[in-house]
Write a structure and sequence with these properties.
The protein has 251 residues and is α/β, with parallel strands linked by helices. Helices cover 36% and strands 21% of the residues. The strands form two sheets. A seven-stranded parallel β-sheet has the order 5-8-7-6-10-9-11, sandwiched between helices. It has a four-stranded mixed β-sheet with strand order 1-4-2-3. Helix 1 packs parallel to helix 2, helix 5 packs parallel to helix 6 and helix 5 packs parallel to helix 9.
């Protein structure tokens, strides 16, 4: 995938540590608070220096400002998000997939913590590519990255302006689109999900947009046994992805 440079801010010990472990080559610099004595932060700084990454020291007030008052734990980092692409990178991203493709499409997830949780599960489940619309989505904010626990730094992600066009291209490439909706007549566990697949999840509350839903080849629902009518989108994503994993392991 030809990746355009996109600089992001990582906030807090866990986010910076995950990037150091999983994508140190994409870390541009680390900044720690002046006078910080937290041994975990000092260890991060030591590892960063050993990896050739610049380590800066600033006042906590500056870190507060740069992190928009989020809990930074005395450490932030600048990250070059070279795993992020656009619509023009779609074919190249698909060509690089060696196994049966599994694509996750998140149509307008607006809560950054939900988005991050979806990315975390996607990486764990072996998703090859994540597609996000540029408009109507939470975006890869520091909160989303923190919630993703390192997945946002390593997953191939496309942020696209025309989701419908991208979905049509996925179909042209032989990838079936399975949309999730509570009103579907077919249950998740009754559907063959083992082939080339794009799992389409809607936003929290409204679900998929009409055109997105219309472009899906079929729709599935998660069986609900209790009185709760629906699941949080990140939980629903996890349920669906691991049913796909299960089916692929037994097929």
């Amino acid at each position: 995938m030809t990746k355009s440079k996109s600089f992001s801010l990582l906030i807090g010990i866990h986010s910076v540590d995950s990037a150091l472990v999983r994508a140190p080559q994409q870390l541009m610099s680390i900044t720690i608070a002046d006078g910080c004595r937290n041994p975990r932060v000092q260890e991060l700084a030591k590892r960063a220096r050993e990896a050739g990454i610049r380590v800066n020291t600033e006042s906590r007030a500056i870190l507060d400002r740069r992190s928009n008052e989020q809990r930074h734990q005395d450490v932030i980092a600048e990250f070059e998000a070279s795993n992020i692409g656009t619509e023009k990178d779609l074919d190249r991203a698909l060509d690089s997939i060696e196994a049966t493709p599994l694509v996750l499409v998140l149509d307008g997830v607006q809560d950054p913590q939900n988005l991050g949780a979806c990315l975390r599960t996607a990486e764990a489940a072996g998703v090859n590519l994540v597609i996000l619309p540029r408009d109507g989505s939470a975006g890869l904010t520091p909160v989303a990255r923190r919630s993703a626990s390192g997945a946002a730094e390593v997953l191939p992600i496309l942020i696209v302006t025309n989701l419908a066009r991208v979905l049509r291209r996925l179909k042209e490439r032989g990838i079936w689109l399975a949309g999730t909706t509570d009103s579907a007549g077919t249950g998740l566990y009754e559907t063959n999900l083992s082939g080339p697949l794009g799992l389409v999840m809607g936003s929290e509350g409204k679900g998929m947009r009409r055109l997105t839903s219309d472009l899906c080849d079929y729709h599935v629902r998660i069986p609900m046994q209790g009185s709760v009518s629906s699941l949080n989108v990140s939980v629903a994503t996890a349920v669906c992805l691991y049913e796909i994993v299960r089916q692929r392991q037994v097929s």
